[in-house]
Every structure is written in C-alpha cells, then in structure tokens.
Amino acid sequence: MCKTIAMVPTRRFWLLIACGIPLAFVAAASKSGLILLAYNGFLVIAAYVTSRLAPNTKGLRLVRKFDPALSVRVPNRVSLTLENTGGEPVAGKFRDEPPPGFPTGNREFVFSLEPGQMRDYSYEVTPPERGLDYFRGTFMRLQCPLGLVEKEAKLQTEQPVRVYPNVLALREFDLLRQKGKLRDIGIRKSRMRGIGTDFESLRDYGDGDDYRKIDWKASARREKLTVRQYEVERNQPVVLCIDVGRRMLSEIDGISKLDYALDSLLMLMHAATVAGDLVGLIVYNERVVRYIPPKKGRQQSGIIIQAIHDLMADPLESDPVQAFSYLSSRWKRRSLIVAFSDVEDKDEASRMSVALSPLANRHVTLLARIADPRLKELTEMKISETNDVYQKTAALMVDADRKLAGTVLDSHGVHTLEAEPQDLASALVSFYFMVKDRGMI
Question: Is 420 a residue whose pLDDT tops 90?
Fold first, then answer.
C-alpha cells in the first residue's frame, strides 16, 4: 500500500521563481505588479496541473529481504525489490528507513520502471545492539511532468527485525571448516581422532602414539608398526553457563563483556552442534533465569539463540553456587561445562571455586574470562611522566590479581581461559576440540 503525503516543489520550480526577479524590477519601474503576478501565477498553476498528472503510486510494490536474525555490530545486507504493477511508467527516487540508530550505507536510490518491470537494490545496516526493532517504511518522490513538483509518498513497508549476537560469524566458520582453513580465524583444530570407540582407519605408528593402539596383526602383515585410529565420539554434552550479573556489565570499547561473551558462546555452540554433540544452556544472576537441558541438532541451536538474543546484564550480585547446584541436580552425565563470567581477585576466585569445584569432580569445567586489551597496554607502557607511574602501577596490580585468581581456580580443578574479545571465540573452540581429541568427556 502506498500513501501520498505531499507535493514538493523541485529545484527547477524555485529557479524559475528566481528568474522572475528581473520582472520585479520592471514591475517596480512601471508601478504595476501585474507582470510579476501573472508570471508567478502561471508557475503555480502549472505546478498544480502537473501535480495532478503525477504517476499513480498504487501500482508500486516493494519487497524487503534480510536474514531472519541480524547480527549485532557487523554489516548486514538488506535487499530491496521494487516492482511497477501499474499501467504507466514511473520514475523518481526512494529511501528506505531502517530502525533509528542503525548505521547504514547508501539507502537512497534513483529508479525508472516501465509497466510490469522490477529492479533490485541493496544496502547494509550495522545494528549497534541486540533486541527487537522495526523498519519504518519506504519514502518515495515521483517525477511529475515538466519537473516542477515531485509527488512524495510512503510505501507501507514497516517490518519487525530481531538483532542477535553475531550469527554471520557462523557462516564464516562453516566456510573455513569446509576448506580446512579454521586456522585463518585462530582455531587450532586437531585431526579429531581421539580415543573414541568407533574404528576409523589404520596408519603408520608415529612418535607419541599410544602403544595400546598398535594393531599387531596389521603390523605383522605390513611388516611395520601400525596403529588403529578411532573416531571421536559424538553425542557428548556441552553445557554453556552465562552470568548476567554485575560482573558482565563492564565495557571494553563501549561494548559490554556480556555481548562479547554471547558472540563467543554462539561460536562454541555452533562448533559443538556441527560435531554432533548435545548443547545446553543455563543463565543466572542472583537466581537461575533460564535453563535449557542439553540436546542435539539445529533446532536446539535455534532455541538457544532465541533464549540469549535479548539478554541484558543487571547490577545484581550473581550467585554461582545456587546456579551450579541447580545444574548439578538436573544434569548428571559427564559433560564439558563452560562458564562465562569474570573474577578479578583471589576472593572472587575462591567464591567461584566453591561453586565450580564440586562439578569439576564429575565434569570438565572451564571458566572463560574476557581480558581488556587496555590493561595489557598499560602494563607494557613506557614511563614518560609522573601520571604514567600511577597508571602502570595500578595496571600491574590488577593484572597480578587476575593471574592469582586464575591460579586459585586451577588449584581447585577448574580450567581457566582468558582472552581478548577478538580472540575469545577461537580460543574456546580450540579448547573444545582439544577436549574432544583427548577424550576428556
């Protein structure tokens, strides 16, 4: 549906009005304003008449297409198809209106369509944050005869849009995985042949191979040591635990640690799904907010993405003891449990250890922390003035506290991983592949 808003004078109209200025001097000299009045009146009447001859907008149809889930903080392609279903040519320009605050590329286009003709256009939007919003419609200005006015109209193309963590990165992961180039994004992927139970193939014995894998009959037949290779088992559970309390409110370059954690969680979940493993989720702050038991398959991934896309951190003190006790009471099978939170000193690490160490007796537990690149810069900065001494000293103290916190967690059997935002996802997936390769779950 297209709704006419107004008739807008064009630049040509105003230039012709300006051309009447000499007539104003003539009118002043002759003490008669009839010449100027007749000139301006003629332009106004011509503009009105041509506006009535403007193309009919009822035949214009615009279809907007984009991914069902837009990715936050990265360019997302928006495709537009404009069709003229009417019986007369239509020309002009149009501008699509994405949600306010979405940085975009060029979204204003010039068009000319014959009856029954259609054209495709596209631009990119970069959503700044997760959540639900909507496109505001499409505004058009259609050319009228003589070019004195343009017909302004609005196509009723309002459309809701959901913004999720960076799902576009999953396509890059799949593409590089198919090409065997996961190392290009920092993922150290083993050959994924571990100590599983499904026989996969035979190969020559190499340094570091477990002698228990030697196939003595095949070795005798081939007259050289040969080992059996087994496929890593599938259907192994991975439980993702996300803290949405105050610790995840802090920001790095204007982006909360929670957002960085969700992007990394998404990549790890996708890697586990592709590998045929089960994936579950628990979200907590002072209480358990959401719990999704581990299952396998793409549908489960969709359920988890839907559950995390609108998560926001609250200024609440989280209770990991309650959260992981809740998880322990509902999930017994040995799993890889990955917790996304932050601990900055020995005391916080001790409290987290109380929560995670009981799980570490049964499961492989990992606490993932996000490192601030600014902290590393400050610890390595060169001293040039007095203020630099204070900044570097404070940074060294914070860095020492965070390292001590990691040591405390390690001493309680909890694995720790700390990486800068751009490296966290690849580090997590590499850890997951290592756990699979070594048969730790």
Answer: yes
Q: Is 117 strand, coil or helix?
A: coil
Q: Are 104 and 81 in contact (CB under 8 A)?
A: no
Bridge partners (DSSP) of residue 357 are none
**What does the pLDDT look like over 88-124, one tens digit per residue?**
888 899 999 999 999 998 999 999 999 999 999 999 9
Residue 431 tokens read as: 């850890």
Q: Are strands 226-231 and 198-204 parallel, antiparallel or unpaired?
A: antiparallel
The pLDDT value given to residue 126: 95
* pLDDT at 340 > cutoff 90: yes
Give the whole-angstrom CA distance, residue 75 versus residue 95.
18
Cα–Cα dist 144/52, whole Å: 9
CA 336 to chain CA mean position, Å: 25
Rounded alpha-carbon distances, angstroms, from residue 4 to 51, 81, 95, 379, 409: 12, 20, 15, 62, 66
Is a pLDDT exceeding 70 seen at residue 181? no
Cα–Cα distances (Å) from 78 to 125, 135, 160, 173, in that order, read: 7, 11, 13, 22
Instruction: Specify the pTM.
Output: 0.75
Q: What does the DSSP assignment read for 269-329?
A: HHHHHHTT-EEEEEEESSSEEEEEEEE-SHHHHHHHHHHHTT----SS---HHHHHHHHHH
DSSP per-residue letters across 156-178: ---EEEEEES-THHHHHHHHHHH
**Helix or strand or coil: residue 338?**
strand
Whether the Cβ atoms of residue 51 and residue 151 lie closer than 8 Å to each other: yes
Cα 292–Cα 297–Cα 302 angle in degrees, nearest 5:
60
Give the Cα-Cα-Cα angle 54, 57, 62 (nearest 5 degrees).
Answer: 140
Average pLDDT over residues 311-334: 94
Contact 274, 298 (CB under 8 A): no
Which has more confidence, 141 or 180? 141
Average pLDDT over residues 202-224: 75
Residue 178 and residue 87 in contact, taking contact as beta carbons nearer than 8 Å: no
φ and ψ at 217, to 5 degrees?
A: -65, -45
- Alpha-carbon span 265 to 164, nearest angstrom: 12
